[in-house]
Amino acid sequence: MEFEGRKRVDTRLNIAPLIDVVFLLLIFFMLSAHFVTQPGIKLTLPTASTAKLHPEEDVIISITNENDLYLNEKKIDLDNLLDELRVKLNESQKKTVIIKADEKIDLGLAVKVMDIAKQAEAKGLVISTRAEEDAK
Q1: Which domain holds residue 130?
Q2: I need a surface site. Which of 69, 77, 81, 82 has the fewest CB within 10 A?
Q3: What does the pLDDT look like over 97-129, one tens digit per residue?
Q4: How far, in Å, CA of 38 to CA of 36, rounded?
């Protein structure tokens, strides 16, 4: 009678599924981090207690605290705003212009932009604010 020696148990860890899971987690966090970033125009919107959510429209004019103008995130100067705004309003179904202005801008510039929006035949004019709860 022969004695069998100790049987050697082969214990290997298959790490291929682990690598797949780690790779999927890496892709998930990379994609979710991309959606957290804010748009390129930095604004501090004024607060209002009666602020309501308004659906984003096609035509947005942003005014930064350095008095730079952006039409749908494209930098533009005041002289070309009327012509570019007319083109954007013709492409838009709702002829509404949203003005997102920093709270520290010159009031005269805001009035000029509103006047240009009316000259471009905008049907509605919305001044974007943030709710007081968001300011805290």
Answers
A1: 47-135
A2: 77
A3: 888 888 888 888 888 988 998 888 888 888 887
A4: 7
